[in-house]
Amino acid sequence: MQKSINKDGIEFSLNWPLVPADVQEQTIALWEAHNALPANTDTAVRAQQAIAFAKDSKTGNPLGVATVQLEHMDWVGQPMFRYRTFAIRDARLRSISVQMVNYVFDLLTTYSSDTGQGGGLYMEIENRQLMQHQNEGVWFESRCSYIGLSPEGWHRRVRYFPHARLSL
Q: Which of 2, 56, 121, 162 is the most buried (most CB within 10 A)?
């Protein structure tokens, strides 16, 4: 599936399950320019998971990227799409992260419904400021719910697909 959305001067490119080579290259360049990933991250593998890429509609400058990976979450008891996002500082004020999570959720809802893969999105909030300032149990705009702390102390959040059923 490929889809392009233009909203508020931001162009969102949604790609799943195959990510075009140019999106992978732009993703790696964005991460490297902003030192966005831990040193031990295989950027080529992670770039293949780039489900959403955002850039400024006027300048073409990259603003952010979201990746997903289908993983079985033992403590949840079912496969979930691990969602990660990075947005440059200037883009965060434009609510780019919220828009990306919602677009990704919509795209994966259809994909999951068609394939039976994944029960929803799972994310760890690896940002202490965000954890302190957006500490609601359910985030209003993205509808992601707090479900506890990771072993590293990060907030865990999930959003289930409407058709998801829990494995017992």
A: 121
- How are beta strands 120-125 and 78-87 bridged, if at all? parallel
How many other β-carbons are positioned within 10 Å of the β-carbon of residue 104? 23
The half-sphere exposure of 97 on its side-chain side, counting CA atoms within 13 A, is: 17
Q: Distance between CA 21 and CA 88 in Å, rounded?
A: 22
pLDDT in tens, 126-154: 877 777 877 888 888 899 999 999 999 99
For 167, phi and psi rounded to 5 degrees?
Answer: -85, 135
Q: Which amino acid is at 150?
A: S
Cα separation, 30 vs 87, in Å, equals 9
Q: What architecture does CATH give domain 2-160?
A: 3-Layer(aba) Sandwich (3.40)
Q: How much is the mean pLDDT over the chain?
A: 90
Nearest to 52 by CA among 106, 9, 92: 106
Closest-CA residue to 109 (of 38, 33, 163): 163
Residues 36-67 as b/e (b if ≥16 CB within 10 A, e otherwise) read beeeeeeeeebbbbbbbbbbeeeeeebbbbbb
The answer to whether 101 and 142 have CB atoms below 8 angstroms apart is: yes
